[in-house]
Design brief:
Blueprint lengths: L1 E5 L5 E3 L2 E5 H11 L4 E6 L10 E3 L5 E5 L8 H24 L2 E6 L2 H9 L7 E6 L11 H11 L7 E6 L9 E4 L21 E6 L8 H13 L4 E6 L5 H10 L6 E5 L3 H10 L2 E4 L8 H8 L3 E5 L4 H4 L7 E3 L3 H12 L2 H15 L4 H12 L2
Parallel strand pairs: 1-4, 1-7, 4-6, 7-8, 8-9, 9-10, 11-12, 11-14, 12-13, 14-15, 15-16
Antiparallel strand pairs: 2-3, 3-5
Helix pairs in contact: 3-4, 5-10, 8-11
Length: 372
Amino acid sequence: MTFCIVSHVNHTAKDGRYYGYGPYIKEMNIWLKYTDSVIVVAPLNEQKLDAIQLAYDHPNITFISVPHFSFTSFRNSWKALIVIPFIFIKILQAYRKADHLHLRCPGNMGLLGALAQLFFPKKVKTAKYAGNWDPNAKQPLTYKWQKALLANSFLTKRMQVLVYGDWPNQSKNIKSFFTASYPESEPWPAHNKTLSNPMQLIFVGSLVQGKNPLYAVKILEFISALGYNAKLNIYGEGILRGELADYIIQNDLDQQVYLQGNVDAASLKAVYEQSHFLLLPSQSEGWPKVVAEAMFWGCIPAATAVSCVSNMLDHENRGIILSMDLNRDAEKIVAIWNNSSHYQQIRTHGIEWSRRYTTTAFEDAIKKLMQV
């Protein structure tokens, strides 16, 4: 079977292999176990590899490089209008050679891929919608168009759309799904976690506006102002790194907040095990892997109630829902910190739930999809 992936993920080529964002590549390598050949249509850039990037693991990959495009400015919009016809033709050409069409959504490439698949009604298709499928969520118009196209079983034939969360009044081709990071063979964390000073907080994610890393720093500040000894380690890179660094220095937080950059998945395991709370004050998510990963290793997540996060946290039985009110959010964290038995109870519920969603279970689900 020839499997065609259309993705917005930026890739890098090195020594005949293609690298991309680690969690995405790790998931795609599970899909690729059940293919004979692979066609990837995505942007390819010359950039330095870092710890978070991984390579596709398949002996027969054809990579079709297309330009990255966006509509974030007037100039970028004009550029996009010029390159879109070229990209669309490349996608159509790749689709003709493939048996199974796979879209990564949402994103500009996902939208073009969703339009192009209309011309191939007889081919088997899957789409992974990794964003927020909530019908009432405020989202860019292009995201809404993608959702409408994918869910329209009259226009979109033989497509299974994998989404996060259970939502009412969905078409038959919408399938509630999940993602995973670790196999069943991983050892369980210690039964209890010692709540000794300092309180260890972590932020894991891109340092971009949508992830709100500055709010995590302000929670640390507020908890410290309440008289608690707390530290915050920030893992990730992004355009806000300089702004965060300036804020840390200007507010004398350099002995409490540490910018750790990107680290590999193995290092993150130890981080989760050693930390007490994960902070994710994000504005938009699908199924945030860091929330499930933190629970897997016994770190209590505190996250905003976007997409299916409330269900993941079982309405605060497995974590903390952030209200984006600093006083309220800090007090929630402190209240759990001050009640060791309650902390251990929430932590245990999180571990038990997250251990259902292993890469073993994920691969079983993918295998069924690939046999359709």
